[in-house]
Design brief:
Layout lengths: L1 H35 L4 E9 L4 E13 L3 E3 L1 H10 L3 H18 L10 E4 L2 H5 L1 H12 L8 E6 L7 H13 L3 E7 L5 H7 L4 E4 L1 H6 L4 H17 L2 E4 L5 H10 L3 E2 L10 H9 L3
Parallel strand pairs: 2-4, 4-5, 5-6, 6-7, 7-8, 8-9
Antiparallel strand pairs: 1-2, 1-9, 2-3
Helix pairs in contact: 3-5
The protein binds ligand C2E and magnesium ion (3 copies).
């Protein structure tokens, strides 16, 4: 019967949903535990000036190796954390680990003069969480002068006025502010005009497309030209081959990162790379 079939499929669907919810809760519990036990790690992807390939900074990226499931991407667990307000705990871990890593290898300030960390949308949009993070950073001597905060463009979408106030709070502390995955939102132009931005990072989807799509290429060119005019630094993300690198240089894009230049490295590998002058 249709009615019975319908009821059965609804029951089936509900069962699947609650299993999914159980899995989420289990994963979240594991994340909380591993965070508390300092079992997550940071890796660092070098960023280069494209003209002469000198190192200009690093982006710190979080890594979680789950005891049963192995490596879980931050693209999976960061959104989970955001929904459950442990975003702040993640960032607290990140700033402490970055500080400890770079101090242990004596990299902070020299030769690494810029360290970017990613923070979550919920954190950026909550003044309470943002202030908590600032206090955490403040507690680590000499960190903030080298630190840059990355926030995805879509995180600032909702309210440009509020975003401007939050960026000013970061900048008042001496931190630099970078807009990640730039070009993917709907407010790109308004942001450049109205927000006190230090850096934008061109989303890697444009870098991928620009070598065979004239419109993507035109977008990258426009972003490079505009940021130049506004005195904003620019980093191309996701450079995977020489063709992309060469095109970016021709366009006058000043900085970049990507697997073709260097993969994210653990701090020991980073120290070796930096000391060998690469
Ligand atoms: P994102 O900030 O845009 O980081 C860049 C991502 O691109 C990283 O992935 C990096 O490993 C990857 N990548 C670098 N070069 C290349 C390349 O040439 N090709 C390709 N295909 N990918 C490249 P990852 O580490 O998996 O991070 C994914 C996202 O998770 C990040 O995107 C960021 O939004 C978030 N995330 C990572 N670490 C943290 C963290 O510590 N805190 C927070 N809140 N979010 C983080
Ligand atoms: Mg980033
Ligand atoms: Mg990005
Ligand atoms: Mg991203």
């Amino acid at each position: 019967h249709a009615k019975t079939r319908e009821r059965n499929s609804v029951q089936f669907f509900n069962k699947q949903l609650s299993e999914l919810e159980n899995q989420r809760q289990k994963l979240l519990g594991d994340l909380r535990q591993d965070l508390a036990a300092n079992r997550l790690n940071m890796v660092y992807q070098p960023q280069y000036r494209l003209a002469d390939q000198t190192l200009v900074g690093v982006e710190a990226l979080i890594r979680w190796e789950h005891a049963e499931h192995g490596f879980i991407s931050p693209d999976v667990f960061i959104p989970l954390a955001e929904d459950n307000s442990i975003a702040n705990e993640i960032s607290r871990f990140v700033v402490h680990q970055v500080y400890q890593d770079l101090q242990q290898y004596r990299l902070l300030g020299n030769p690494i003069e810029r360290v970017s960390i990613n923070i979550s949308a919920v954190e950026f949009n909550s003044r309470m969480m943002l202030d908590a993070l600032l206090m955490e950073i403040e507690s680590l001597p000499n960190l903030k002068q080298w630190l840059q905060i990355e926030i995805t463009e879509t995180a600032t979408l909702n309210n440009l006025e509020k975003s401007a106030a939050n960026i000013k709070a970061l900048k008042a502390e001496g931190l630099r502010f970078s807009v990640d995955d730039f070009g993917t939102g709907y407010t790109s132009l308004a942001m450049l005009k109205d927000l006190p931005i230090d850096e934008v990072k061109i989303d890697r989807s444009f870098i991928k497309a620009m070598v065979h799509e004239t419109k993507a290429k035109a977008i990258v060119e426009a972003i490079v030209g505009m940021t130049h005019g506004f005195g904003i630094s620019i980093v191309a993300e996701g450079i995977e081959n020489k063709e992309q690198l060469d095109l970016l240089k021709v366009m006058g894009c000043s900085e970049g990162q990507g697997y073709f230049l260097a993969k994210p490295l653990n701090v020991k590998q980073l120290a070796a790379t930096v000391r060998s002058g690469l």
